[in-house]
Amino acid sequence: MRTGWRLRRPRGPAEVTSAAVVALAVLMMAARTVTVTAGALADAWPALLTLAALGGVAALWRVRRAIAGRRRDGARLAALRITLAEFDAMDDRRFEHALRDLLVRDGWTARRVGGGGDQAADVIGDHAVRGRIVVQAKHTRVGGKVGSSVMYAVKGTAGPAHRADHAVVVTNGSLTRDAMAWGDRHTVHWVDRQKLRRWAEDGIALHELLRLPARSRSSRFKRTA
Question: For the residues of 130-198, what is the DSSP string, one character each?
Fold first, then answer.
């Protein structure tokens, strides 16, 4: 059994007249509502316009502040110089951050990725012309040496794991003769204490210091999808 209400058409002149009166009343109320709303908007538009203008000014201020901040950061990095003594005083994490900042100074889009499971990459940088670089950072005590095993690890992961065009081992100490020779033979670049001074203190860009070539279709490190 249906329990809902159903509308039926008016019957007879009296019901038609009543329905017409109700419809007219509804239309008059709707018209009045529209008129009142339009009047309220007309009265309020200066305030609304002021709020919109203030919102626009605030948004513009935020954009200009962000741009100014990026310019300050860019100027700071462009003038970045780090001494060997400052490197020696760092811990591993700060050393990695410093190398990232130096790459950014040189025009790379770089990020620190060092940590557990980094697959022999502490910093990764990308360059519009030279492609991708993987940096393995080895912070040592003064006089410490980096051996060939680091070179093997970087060579093994630079292409397959990180899709890199260049791999570099950077230390504030030195490398063994075998490590340097193996790196030279297998295109794993290295930066020892003397090269680090030229890069960080003298301001020579890393890709110029190491003579990194432009990215080619056939990378020196075979990539996997």
Answer: TEEEEEEEE---TT-EE-HHHHHHHHHHHTTTT--SEEEEEESSEE-HHHHHHHHHTTEEEE-HHHHII
124 phi and psi angles, rounded to 5 deg: -125, 130
Is residue 136 within 8 A of residue 150, CB to CB? The reply is yes
Instruction: Please indicate, yes or no, whether the overall pTM of this predicted structure exceeds 0.85.
Output: no
CA distance 139 to 95: 7
Cα-to-chain-centroid distance, residue 32: 55
212: which DSSP letter?
P
Q: Which has the higher per-residue pLDDT, 133 or 221? A: 133
- Region 148-169 average pLDDT: 95
Task: Look at residue 127 and give its three-state secondary structure.
Answer: strand
CA-to-CA distance for 57 and 106, rounded, in angstroms?
35
